[in-house]
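Please decode residue identities from the backbone states below.
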């Protein structure tokens, strides 16, 4: 068994990051993913490089690291959807699929007869998931969506950055990744419905909707008060101290979530006298007096190096941690113990396994599996067309000659 989704067949019309994140999650869980790419061009992220995966000599291979990060457990075929023969082949392949996932701009696939309304009568069991910037409805529906654009329009940039600095985006493409995750959850719910009723449905995932949904406590603070939250840099809007703290030789993160923990912190820091000051005594007053509390505690934490604080605070069961760069992350013993890096043989790397970030999903009975390395462009075209449609080598050669595949 390949995983809990073994037997689920997915027609993957996604590219860039949001859609591929969704289908990689499904693939890791055992689904069969057939990734459709444009002939000769492929997924845009094949050209988001450098960096490339390194080969066995340490040189660049032909495959971008960006693409490899979101496309394992997929078979790649090339198919020209703007060609009527390509559209016909797509429908023949769909007859064997349970799910279609796409992240084209709203209305694009309808031009090729592959929109949900075009397919639902012919494929009533099909789950059709669209991941777009702004959804299928509303005044922005026809606009293209990009991660930084969505971070800006969705409010996260207004909350991120120093109070007197410019608005700042998150350092990874969080709008894309969260949209892919919500799409994956939606598909799993639709698969359950499909199993119970035999019916498919359309799933409409908007990146902007997703971004608004994870404004979480900050969004709720605005709805409750009508006050627009200000940027606080690395500080928490409702808890102090819960932020980056300076040390004698750098910085660390301190997370004090309640009054008993603050009392223990004062014991470690030797500043118990602060507990007699009304501005420090309770969590509410620490937030109200944020600037004074922060300045006072910063002077205290600068008295020892980060390693001293991390050892002492952890011993007192106070939330704390180092601020790791990515080398430190992947060298971390906890990350290693959780096996968050995997290696897979790849045809482009000359025998050197490609390092990939593992799935965080840990399941005791049906664990994720890593079966297929991120594919090269069109690597499985002949294989899939023979296996799924019974085409001969001559048939495939003829299609390739016409630019259909």
């Amino acid at each position: 068994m390949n995983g809990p989704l073994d037997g689920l067949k997915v027609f993957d019309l996604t590219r860039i990051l949001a859609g591929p994140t969704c289908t990689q999650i499904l693939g890791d869980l055992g689904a069969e993913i057939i990734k459709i790419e444009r002939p000769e061009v492929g997924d845009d992220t094949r050209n988001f490089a450098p960096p490339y995966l390194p080969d066995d000599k340490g040189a660049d291979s032909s495959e971008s690291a960006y693409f490899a990060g979101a496309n394992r457990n997929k078979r790649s075929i090339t198919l020209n959807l703007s060609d009527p023969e390509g559209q016909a082949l797509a429908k023949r392949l769909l007859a064997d699929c349970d799910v279609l996932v796409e992240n084209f701009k709203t209305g694009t696939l309808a031009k090729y007869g592959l929109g949900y309304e075009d397919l639902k009568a012919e494929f009533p069991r099909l789950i059709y998931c669209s991941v777009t910037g702004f959804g299928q409805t509303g005044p922005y529906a026809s606009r293209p969506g990009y991660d930084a654009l969505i971070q800006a329009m969705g409010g996260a940039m207004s909350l991120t950055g120093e109070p007197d600095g410019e608005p700042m985006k998150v350092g990874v493409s969080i709008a894309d990744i969260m949209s892919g995750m919500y799409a994956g959850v939606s598909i799993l719910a639709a698969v359950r419905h499909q199993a119970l009723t035999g019916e498919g449905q359309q799933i409409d995932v908007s990146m902007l909707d997703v971004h608004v949904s994870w404004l979480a406590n900050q969004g709720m603070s605005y709805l409750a008060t009508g006050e627009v939250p200000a940027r606080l840099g690395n500080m928490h809007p409702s808890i102090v101290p819960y932020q980056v703290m300076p040390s004698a030789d750098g910085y660390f993160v301190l997370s004090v979530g309640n009054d008993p923990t603050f009392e223990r912190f004062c014991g470690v820091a030797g500043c118990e006298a602060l507990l007699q000051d009304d501005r420090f005594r309770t969590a509410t007053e620490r937030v109200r007096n944020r600037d004074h509390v922060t300045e006072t505690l910063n002077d205290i934490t600068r008295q020892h190096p980060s390693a001293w604080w991390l050892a002492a605070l952890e011993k007192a069961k106070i939330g704390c941690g180092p601020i790791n760069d990515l080398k430190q992350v992947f060298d971390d013993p906890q990350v290693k113990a959780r096996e968050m890096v995997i290696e897979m043989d790849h045809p482009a790397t000359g025998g050197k396994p490609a390092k990939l970030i593992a799935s965080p999903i840990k399941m005791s009975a049906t664990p994720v599996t890593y079966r297929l390395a991120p594919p090269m462009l069109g690597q499985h075209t002949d294989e899939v067309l023979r296996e799924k449609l019974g085409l001969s080598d001559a048939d495939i050669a003829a299609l390739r000659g016409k630019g259909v595949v």
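Observation: The CA atoms of residues 233 and 401 lie 57 Å apart.
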